[in-house]
Design brief:
Oligomer: single chain
Strand content: 15-25%
Bound molecules: zinc ion
Shape: elongated
Order of helices and strands: HHHHHEHEEEEEEEEEEHEEEEH
Number of helices: 8
Number of strands: 15
Helix content: 10-25%
Strand order of the largest sheet: 10-11-15-14
Length: about 375
């Protein structure tokens, strides 16, 4: 035990300092030398380790007794030595219980995410909106009502009856966590009484019954961009549930439900239309009128067009959603289908007989060669 570090001196307290003084000294120094406050400063980090080790011993009555007897962590083989047992990196996560209130809010640092002052982001909210096919293609502004929770107007979100205030939780003393064991390396869990809030409400607010939040219907007019599909998600930043303790609000996601068109079928970035052709049109070719998303167009059907042939009209399909897409719109695919009549007039029947006579080759012959 050649050089036992002088922990009292490191923390700047007297040999007989009480627990409260030690804790106060440690908190002050930890705040000053915390790696989050001194990024890249090796001296500060070394000093932080030193004061942490000092507090680890002096802050724990058992270890302090040992230390005072001369069997400090460098002398004894106690498992308490934070730097014993190899291991390179220095992990501050074990200090969460004491550092959370130091660093939880002020720096957003790694001091642990617990404690009553910790910001809590609001939850995201999802809702659906019905659109016609045309609205989905052209974009639309649609009214929307969303049920979200808002801070209670009676108690302003505290949950306490007006005129009263939430009390600091008597079990965890406001830290929101209960620790098993003492000192820095203890196991912590959310407080069983206040469930991590750090406060308890003795007189609950009559409006929200202590929850601090009320359900309200929020009305929005949502701009649905042109080109959405069934199941597209439109994000409205910050329109979700409010956060707690100045946390960011969540987002509102509007899922589009698009009514199918009887004519246009969505196929990825494109739409498809079935265009029936009579048998003579398919054989001889024709100029046919077809619907587009903005009106009508004439299409040239070449002679000998087979059933199922697709002709593309480029760049006249639905707008593409991602900004700056090239080309900005998809295509319209016209799929030609030969319209075979289910029943024939006498005249048509004779014509088909005639056709059978003159087109008497067997197109299936090649299947059997
Ligand atoms: Zn508590
Ligand atoms: Zn209330």
């Amino acid at each position: 035990m050649a050089s036992r570090p002088d922990y009292s001196q490191i923390l700047g307290v007297g040999k007989n300092a009480c627990d409260e003084e030690i804790k106060k000294a440690y908190r002050k120094l930890a705040r000053q030398y915390h790696p989050d406050r001194n990024p890249g400063d090796e001296k500060a980090e070394a000093r932080f380790k030193e004061i942490s080790a000092a507090y680890d011993t002096l802050g724990d009555p058992e270890k302090r007794k040992q230390y005072d007897r001369g069997a400090g962590p460098f002398g004894g083989a106690g498992p308490a030595n934070p730097f014993g047992g190899g291991g390179g990196g220095f992990d501050t996560s074990g200090f969460g219980d004491i550092l959370s209130d130091l660093f939880g809010r002020a720096t957003g640092g790694s001091g642990g995410g617990r404690g009553p002052t910790r910001e809590q982001p609001g939850r995201d909210v999802e809702t659906e909106v019905r659109l016609s096919f045309d609205q989905a293609i052209e974009g639309a502004q649609v009214p929307l009502q969303v049920a979200t929770s808002q801070p209670c107007p009676t108690c302003r979100g505290t949950g306490a009856k007006p005129g009263t205030a939430p009390k600091v939780c008597p079990v965890c003393h406001g830290r929101g966590i209960e620790s098993e064991g003492q000192g820095l390396f203890s196991i912590s869990q959310p407080c069983s009484l206040c469930h991590g809030q750090g406060t308890v409400i003795e007189d609950p607010c009559p409006t929200c019954h202590g929850s601090g939040a009320v359900r309200t219907l929020k009305k929005y007019r949502v701009n649905i961009p042109a080109g959405v599909r069934d199941g597209s998600r439109v994000r409205l930043a910050g329109k979700g549930e409010p956060g707690r303790n100045s946390g960011q609000p969540g987002d509102l996601y509007v899922i589009t439900r698009v009514t199918e068109s009887p004519i246009f079928r969505r196929r990825g970035d494109n739409v498809e239309v079935e265009v029936p052709l009579t048998i003579p049109e398919a054989i001889r070719g024709a100029e046919v009128e077809v619907p587009t998303l903005g009106g009508r167009k004439k299409l040239r059907v070449p002679p000998g067009t087979k059933h199922g042939t697709v002709q593309r009209l480029r760049g006249e399909g639905p707008p593409r959603l991602s900004p700056g897409s090239r080309p900005p719109r998809g295509d319209i695919h016209y799929r030609f289908v030969i319209d075979v009549p289910a029943s024939l007039s006498e005249e048509q029947s004779e014509a088909v007989d005639k056709l059978s006579e003159v087109m008497n080759g067997n197109p299936r012959a090649r299947l059997f060669t």
